[in-house]
Amino acid sequence: MKKKVFVFFPDGVGLRNFAFTNFKTIGAQNGFDVVYWNNTVFDIEATFGFDEVRIENTATHPLLPQYTRARKRVELNLWTKKFKDDVYQTYKFPFNYKGIKNSLKSLLTKLLIGWYGSEKGIEKLRQKIEKLERTTSKYTYCKKQLKEHKPDLVFCTTQRATQAISALLAAKDLGIPVVTFVYSWDNVPKAMQVVETDYYCVWSDLMKAQMLQYYPYINESQIFVTGTPQFEPHFDKGLKEERTQFFKSHNLDLNKKYICYSGDDETTSPLDQYYLEDLVKAVRKLNADGYNLGVIYRKCPVDFTSRYDKVLFENKDVITVIDPIWKQIGKNWNTVLPDKEDFKLLYNVCEHTELVTNVCSSTVFDFVLHNKSCIYYNYEQPQLKKGIRDIGQNYKYVHFRSMPSKEAAVFCESKVDLEHLLKDILDDKLSNVEEGLKWFEIVAGSKPAMASESIWEVINKLI
């Protein structure tokens, strides 16, 4: 009899890795009955024909947001003291005091931080969160679903969703093994873990070491290094379009070479539009010197601002907009979900451009996998003023300390340097590809094309 695995989506962020890749196909080929336990607004069964069990009850405890925010801040405070490093304080979002309701929530969170602000306190806080979620109707609802469908294992696609807590507690309380996947390369040192499971799948040896460093209550035997399905499409040559076809599909000029500008969300890079403007100015100068260049602008899928509009309109002779193929199904950022076709689009944007420029994005890895360089902007804009976040803070984060050298990306430290950095890359005098690939292996592991297979091997072992 086939072993049944529930692949659990507490929110939409895991869909890209575990619904749109070959993850399900590989599981089925290995003899598993793969069922998607779906807490999202995305209809997996209608879209792909995959078996799914929908979670209609999304009720969390009313105090859960305050308790989980307190947990994050307490952990960051403890790590600041333990590791004597103020970087952890930069991961905090400011309290919201707009209106009486938000003010009360912020005050309660601060009270909880004070009450649980110690090593023993954080342990009690973790227990309290679980106790609260066991009282919810969602916990009872999920427990009933699990008893009905009897999965042999639950695989949670992200460790950072509060919607996962009650469902996974229900599974654990029924004795069903629970595994979670650590979603992103920066999540561990940012204290973004809200679920506690029996086992964890992580990208790399680096991430495993971080899990043991930050969460000493987790044993080494609970952590498996698998890689991430995120980058698997870049190893699928079947996604490649011929240059002429790609250019025709997107109204690009075959006589031009293109530079990709990969946009950021407003939190990471609040003045991002001005870096795009700087790139256009540098391209115009290079074109005046005999180059024939254009810019492809690929926006951040969860950026809904109009801040780029002026730059795009005024420079439409240079910039071609190629939007990612994502759909907004709900109101929140995590209900903006990718289409499977975006894998192919991103592959070909990487393949048919000369390089990428952005502010601290993981697209550096997407492009080095196509032997293309990445320029990171690392200078302040004159529009920077009090209340606007300086992008230089991003490069001080712990996950950037994984770089094997400063040459793993091309850092542009001043806008006056941008033109000659572009020129040197275009003329094959400068590249970060060799060091960038080393960095990629540190972050994503040694077998990035086999991540789905590795995860299924872990699941098979645990069952």
Walkthrough of the structure:
- The strands form three sheets. The chain has a seven-stranded parallel beta sheet with strand order 3-2-1-4-5-6-7.
- With 463 residues, it is of the alpha/beta class.
- Helix content is 39%, strand content 14%.
- The protein has helices spanning 15-18, 23-29, 44-48, 64-83, 99-115, 119-134, 137-149, 165-173, 205-214, 243-249, 272-288, 309-314, 341-352, 363-368, 418-426, 433-444, 451-462, and strands at residues 3-9, 32-38, 52-54, 153-156, 178-181, 199-202, 223-225, 257-262, 293-298, 319-321, 326-328, 336-338, 355-358, 373-377, 410-412.
- The chain folds into three domains: 3-60 and 136-227 and 448-462, 3-Layer(aba) Sandwich (Rossmann fold), CATH 3.40.50; 64-131, no CATH class; 235-444, Rossmann fold, CATH 3.40.50.
- The radius of gyration is 23 Å and the shape is globular.
- It is built from 17 helices and 15 strands.
- This is UDP-glycosyltransferase.
CATH architectural designation of the largest domain: 3-Layer(aba) Sandwich
Strand order of the largest sheet: 3-2-1-4-5-6-7
Provide the number of structural domains: 3
Strand content: 5-15%
What class, by secondary structure content? alpha/beta
Gross geometry: globular
Helix content: 25-40%
Query: How many strands in all?
Result: 15
Query: Major beta sheet, specifics?
Result: 7 strands, parallel
Low-pLDDT sequence parts: none
Q: Terminal Cα separation, in Å?
A: 13 Å
Report the radius of gyration as a whole number of Å: 23 Å
The CATH superfamily of the largest domain is known as Glycogen Phosphorylase B
Protein name: UDP-glycosyltransferase
Organism: Aestuariibaculum sediminum
